[in-house]
């Protein structure tokens, strides 16, 4: 399970963690998994390389609903400008 994988890393290191959604090469991150993991103090951001603006906005909305404030990065150049337009995103 991908959530357990991230929890193991979060507990093992004292470093900032960026969650990475890259469904082409790994199990896609679920909105609720990101919501739960973002509550950890060392989780500082999320990079989405799905290429879907819909998914990126859903991740942003889900975290905003629970009051979490993490940084979002986009991993696909075709979503850079749209993500900047919604107020988020670094390449």
Structure description:
This protein is an alpha/beta fold and 91 residues long. It is built from four helices and three strands. The protein has a three-stranded parallel β-sheet with strand order 1-2-3, covered by helices on one side. Helix 2 (31-37) links the parallel strand 1 and strand 2 (43-48). Helix 2 (31-37) crosses helix 3 (53-65). The termini are far apart. The model has no long low-confidence stretch (mean pLDDT 89).
Sheet with most strands? 3 strands, parallel
Average pLDDT across residues? Answer: 89
* SS elements, strand count: 3
Q: In terms of structural class, how would the helical and strand content be classed? A: alpha/beta
User: Percent range for helical residues?
Assistant: 40-55%
Which quaternary structure do these chains form? single chain
Spans of 5+ residues with little confidence (pLDDT < 50)? Answer: none
SSE string, helices as H and strands as E: HEHEHEH
Radius of gyration: 12 Å
Side by side, the strands of the main sheet go 1-2-3
- Strand residues, percent: 15-25%
Shape: globular
- Given the structure, what is the number of helices? 4
Give the terminus-to-terminus CA distance. 28 Å
């Amino acid at each position: 399970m991908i959530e357990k994988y991230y929890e193991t890393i979060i507990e093992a290191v004292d470093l900032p963690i960026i969650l990475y959604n890259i469904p082409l090469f790994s199990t896609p991150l679920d909105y609720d998994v990101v919501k739960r993991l973002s509550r950890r103090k060392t989780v500082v951001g999320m990079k989405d390389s799905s290429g879907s603006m819909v998914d990126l906005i859903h991740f942003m909305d889900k975290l905003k609903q629970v009051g979490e404030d993490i940084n979002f990065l986009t991993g696909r150049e075709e979503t850079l400008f749209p993500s900047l337009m919604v107020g988020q995103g670094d390449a």
